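Tutorial sheet, problem 5. The two components below are modelled jointly, 468 residues in total.
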Amino acid sequence: MTVVIAGASLAGLTAADTLRNEGYEGSIIVVDPSTEIPADRPPLSKQVLAGEWPPEKAQHRAAARVPDLDLDLRLGVAATALDAASRSISLSDGSLISADGIVLAMGATARRLPGDQPAGVHVLRTLDDCLSLRAELEKMPARVAVIGAGFIGAEVAATCRGRGLEVTMIEAAPVPLGRVLPGDLGAFITDLHRSHGVEVILGVGVEGLEITSEVGGSEHVSGVRLSDGRVVEADVVVVGIGVVPNTAWLEGSGLRLENGVSCDATCSAAPGIVAAGDVASWPNPLYGEVMRVEQWENAVEQGEYAARRLLAEIRHEELPAPFATIPWFWSDQYDRKIQMAGRPSASDEVIIPEGSLEEHRFVALFRRGDLCTAVLGVNRPRHVMQVRMKLTESLDWQTALSVFG
Amino acid sequence: MKIVVNYDLCESNAICMAVAPEVFEVRDDDFLYLLTDEPGEELRDKMEESARRCPKQAITIEG
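Model answer (structure tokens):
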């Protein structure tokens, strides 16, 4: 019996751990193009980038479990092709494996700006990305430009301020996180960063990069050219404009690829093939909506679920109930702990039953008709989790509101 | 079975409270409190799940 897991990050290794916990004794082959087990990512934009943690501390529990899991771990090896019907998977080392079960957990890759990538331009996804950015920050550049005011951009901006660096954050949308948050919460994020000394430029696109040639002919970034003609001078540019799921190798596999690997409600993409983490797109029954979730906790929860679901299929047992989850994430910026549970949209009504935007400590509930779609808290972890526990049973608005008596 | 929380690591994300509210409680002061540090054996699965889900790896189970 052979299970192949494509991806040795949080979702993939959590799936491996779960297979063993559930008593699976067959072979588990884990492949990943990285030459080392990928780091736990949340500290990469915070403690490791800040220089507070040594890199090796950015290791999640499932990675620490690897020596106990009896894995055939093939690092530096990518999965290159799949035939879903026969579950045969080709690897970059030339081997072809016929698997009884496959877990697709390849994660995602940071999106880059188009064109040349001169020195000084960074994305932040892997430990290597983090360390090369950190090395440049340690040289105390005069200014860091952050392109994109999403959560990665916002955390990098906060960490750079913590290092005493000047920071400009550039966002093409009129408010940060405008796709997911209603405007007044986006304005809160803007205010949070401005009050900590970040220059925040909104509603202006990036036209291109300014480049200088150094002695010896190599090129280094010197600034960001904006669509309104302005130039933000910067020695370091961090690009935080989202990620793309790593599914290119699955073209022609027979799987449906639509914003990731399209799965059914039990995270199955085809017989004997499941997906988890950043690559998995599935109909979440709690929301009646197909979603793909790029969040730490989902990688754990879905990794566990997908492994259990795959085992049930292999063992001809009853399949688990559909994967129903209230997505949850946290983001630490300065001394603020932002947490959100749910799936808001920018058009939801926002009600603040606790605290206020002005004091930077509050709970916001998102309302769509009779439903509470999400809860966001700033330094209010207890309330966020209490609402999340209610939402797990039903998205009913009054039930969510009842948390606040 | 004994539950140990490393409060230097804990950031009160309250994931554990969602898994096992009978053991973990994040209160209004935003700190995590253990309602018992020796939960019954029937809670072992929930304790292991809490430890696994903790984003800070702040929970360990002894025994």
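Marking note: Residues 2-109+243-314 of chain A form a domain with the FAD/NAD(P)-binding domain fold (CATH 3.50.50.60). Full credit if you identified this.
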